[in-house]
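Quick entry, no commentary yet.
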Amino acid sequence: MRRPAQYISASDVTKYYFSTVTHPGTSQVAVVGDGDDALRVHPEADITALIALLPEITESEATALTNLIETNKGGTVTFSDIIPTTSVQLTEDEADAAGWTQTDELE
């Protein structure tokens, strides 16, 4: 997730809301975030691109997500409210145990 291009300045440190991590063995990519984080919804938000990135969600879940964003334009939603039910959610310890983090010893 990122901010609309027209609101990103060259002096900004990042254009993304959350960081990502790539699993070293599977090349899967995960979003790293706190489910309680509040996300501001731009008054002109268009969820079409996000829905397109989530082909595994049902039509009813896509409709619910669209309605959530439409209802909260100009307001906020929590990160957990936009995570599809088909997504696997891991705690930091679970991610470590599943090999998502790799620690190399310094020599």
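second:
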Amino acid sequence: MLLTTSIFFFGMAQSIEINSIPAPKTFYYIMGLMLFFDCAVLVVDRFKSHIPTRLDHYWTWIGINLILGVICFYASSAVPNPHPDGPATRLEWFVLIAAIVRSAIDYAVSIGFMFPHTEDTKPA
């Protein structure tokens, strides 16, 4: 899974500029693919877990990844490629804001999973 995800990230990095020409259509398409792949991995992992209730936050991750994936696929069909020089379009700003909101929800909902509470081991 990590290898596949790293390949998606590599593809996104390569699509930032192709022959010195920005290519957002390709970037958004690969980002959408990565988010849908992440959803598939989360569904499989959730159902194969021997403690499924511990992974209930996966449904939030799946939902926010699906929403941002759909936005990215829409953006890949709506943003011109190659991108004209100049300021970002409203759609590009919307994708950026959606990605930030997705990350904020991710951390807010699953902070206990990502940073589990550890007992203070200092002597009293």
